[in-house]
Design a protein that fits this description.
The chain is an all-alpha fold. 79% of the residues lie in helices and 0% in strands.
Length: 208
């Protein structure tokens, strides 16, 4: 400690520094040493859970929506690759909270495709629209709900990124990247693929 001190001020400073210190011996009740295996095991289990969930989601989408479900699966795979690519370009590290954001990204992407396909099914089966009209109306109407929901999630992710620290920022970064890529793949890419299929095959009925 540097400064201009005399005997009295030095004594006062010593009293202030020692205030609250109790002359009690430390008794060790329990001592643990945690190695890196714990974190590695958690990450492996997180990746396993994500993989199992993705497999079930892929099976459910294909079984429920047929060709449109296949397009949704393609979009989901591209979505995950885009998130990983952006993280690699940005030099981000995929931590355990990041894996949680990754899983939430899968859920958001699947939710967007479900909204679109269910709206197309409603327009086709209940309102008896033709295939092209049902697809066009389904994408237009579902896109509004998708944008509203993802804007709300994006605001929460930005707030977590600005005010959070450490693992919370990792979760927010993955979530924000995933939200942007999921909207792009679900709304833009699948619509392009479906439009190309309608132009070439000209189906008269959708298997939904």
């Amino acid at each position: 400690i540097s400064g201009s001190f005399n005997a009295e001020t030095a004594k006062q400073l010593a009293i202030q520094l020692s205030a609250g210190a109790l002359p009690v011996d430390l008794t060790v009740v329990e001592e643990r040493t945690v190695g890196p295996d714990l974190g590695r095991d958690s990450i492996q289990k997180g990746v396993l859970a994500m993989s199992i969930g993705a497999i079930f989601v892929i099976g459910l989408m294909v079984a429920s929506y047929g060709r449109l479900g296949v397009y949704a699966v393609y979009a989901l795979v591209l979505n995950l690759l885009m998130v990983l690519g952006v993280m690699a370009l940005g030099g981000f590290t995929l931590t355990l909270p990041g894996i949680a954001g990754f899983v939430l990204t899968i859920g958001s992407a699947v939710d967007a495709n479900v909204l679109i396909n269910e709206r197309i099914r409603e327009e086709s089966n209940k309102r008896n629209r033709k295939v092209v009209s049902a697809v066009e109306t389904g994408y237009r109407e579902a896109s509004r709900a998708i944008f509203d929901a993802n804007i709300t999630n994006a605001i929460a992710a930005v707030l977590l990124l600005n005010f959070g620290s450490g693992p919370i920022k990792g979760f927010a970064i993955v979530l924000l990247i995933g939200l942007i890529s999921s909207v792009f793949t679900a709304v833009v890419l699948t619509r392009m693929w479906v439009a190309g299929w309608l132009r070439t095959k000209r189906p008269t009925k959708l298997a939904l």
